[in-house]
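Quick one:
INPUT:
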């Protein structure tokens, strides 16, 4: 009986040695695609000044032009945003400054801009 117990304990010890407590190796990460064009904002870049809806629209357009140039936004996304800015332009020109600025903020939010 004692011999049977020793064999059982030995088998349990051997089984414990065979299991690993290491975490599985992380899956390899895909390389990020290389950005197109210039990758940083030019040193002389400045946002347009101005107030109200015209200033809001001009600033967001400047950001979009820079993002397109640096490859941080695709042409199709840029075109979608520009279509939204044309709507904001129309509201602004019609004297609806508040709704135009709200439209700019909503567009920025929808496309992931702070």
């Amino acid at each position: 009986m004692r011999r049977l117990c020793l064999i059982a304990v030995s088998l349990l010890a051997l089984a414990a040695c065979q299991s690993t407590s290491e975490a599985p190796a992380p899956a390899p990460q895909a390389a990020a695609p290389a950005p197109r064009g210039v990758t940083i904002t030019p040193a002389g870049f400045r946002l347009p000044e101005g107030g109200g809806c015209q200033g809001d629209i001009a600033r967001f357009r400047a950001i979009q032009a820079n993002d397109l140039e640096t490859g941080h936004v695709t042409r199709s996304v840029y075109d979608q945003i520009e279509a939204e800015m044309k709507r904001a332009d129309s509201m602004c020109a019609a004297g609806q400054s508040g709704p135009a600025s709200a439209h700019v903020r909503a567009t920025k939010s929808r496309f992931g801009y702070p």
